[in-house]
Amino acid sequence: MAEIRKDPVSGNWCVVGYTFLKNTFVGICPFCPGNEGMTPPVIKEIKNKDGSWAVRCFPASNPIFIIEAGENKKAEGLYDKMDNVGAHEIIVENPVHNKTMSSFTIEDYKVLLELYLYRITDLKKDKRFKYILIFKNHGELAGSYIFHPHSHALATPIIPQRLELELYHSKLHFQKKDRCLFCDIVSQEIRQNKRVVSINNSFIAFCPFASRFPFEVWIMPRFHSAHFEHLNEDAIKMEFISIMLGVMKRIERLTNAYTIVIHTSPNIRTFQGQFDNLLIDDHFHWHIEILPRDQRSSKYKREDEFYVVPTTPEESAGILRSERV
Asked: What distances in angstroms separate CA 95 from CA 31, 43, 53, 113, one per listed residue?
């Protein structure tokens, strides 16, 4: 069984001993209509008016995190580790095999959004899970080898390192200025109007000041909100869908590989310090990060939410020792 280990130097958590399994369905897409028997039983699906499915969600066949596992926290000297408790789900975004997000209709994305909101809300009911991460990899440069449009939902017992950094700096900013860092970013981007890609009454899309990739775009609500899953009002949803699809039409004209990550509030009330009464809802602000990949940037490693390693360090050390020098 894989386990989660903490790096005492960086504070980052890594999944070690995870076995990568290749897709054995040669020439057959397990996500296409008619092949539902090739995937685990469905958790949730939303149907079209004709009774066919529009989007569907099911457990990953080869999950990184396992819902049946216990936390089983333990120490090995100064090192900390735990079992890989959590959940790993696949969300098939559309029944059409070769449909990319730039060609999604408003209705296509609307039902996908409903499924995203439902899964985050449902998974947050399990208090073992500290964070719910939804991301989409599209194209081989982004690490995806199944072309059928799909996303991943990960429920984890720890907060990913990049989210911890966002929480730390947004909290620090709020403590100094009594304002949300992300709200201040939105205000400055609108005021300067140098990096804005698109804007409407409720959302802004912009290239972040310190972009990690060419054409990296963040989408952020212009109103303060910590929880993506609280996106409930129909009019607000439509504005989000409009700006999201507009950005993706632009992105897909420039690259055929990208990652989309939803950064929502973790499943805890405060960050760092049990005696700190500053709520995450006060200083965090949900947003979408769209990270294009191309030949210019593929040699640089993306700041992955988790490092997942197939061999344990003990196995790696044994293999290296056995090599003749």
From this structure: 8, 16, 7, 15
Residue 142 amino acid letter: A
Q: Give the ranges where 255-285 is alpha helix by DSSP (H).
A: 280-283
Give the CATH architecture of domain 3-322: 2-Layer Sandwich (3.30)
Q: List phi, psi (to 5°) of 262.
A: -95, 120
- Give the model confidence (pLDDT) of 217-273 as tens digits: 999 999 999 999 999 999 999 999 999 999 999 999 998 899 999 999 999 888 876
- Please state the domain extents for the chain: 3-322
C-beta atoms surrounding 203 within 10 Å: 23
What would you measure as the largest C-alpha separation in the chain, in angstroms? 66
pTM: 0.91
* Structural contact between residues 278 and 217, judged by C-beta atoms closer than 8 angstroms: no
DSSP-assigned beta bridge partners for residue 45: 56
Q: For residue 145, list its beta bridge partners.
A: none
d(CA 159, CA 214): 27
Q: How many CB atoms lie within 10 A of CB 44?
A: 15
Q: For 177-246, give the DSSP string.
A: HSS-HHHHHHHHHHHH-SSEEEE-SSEEEE--TT-SSTT-EEEEESS--S-GGG---HHHHHHHHHHHHH
Give the per-residue SS3 of 20-63.
CCCCCCCCCCCCCCCCHHHCCCCCEEEECCCCCEEEEEEECCCC
**287-292 sheet: strands from edge to edge:** 44-47, 53-59, 87-92, 150-156, 131-138, 258-263, 287-292, 217-221, 203-206, 196-199
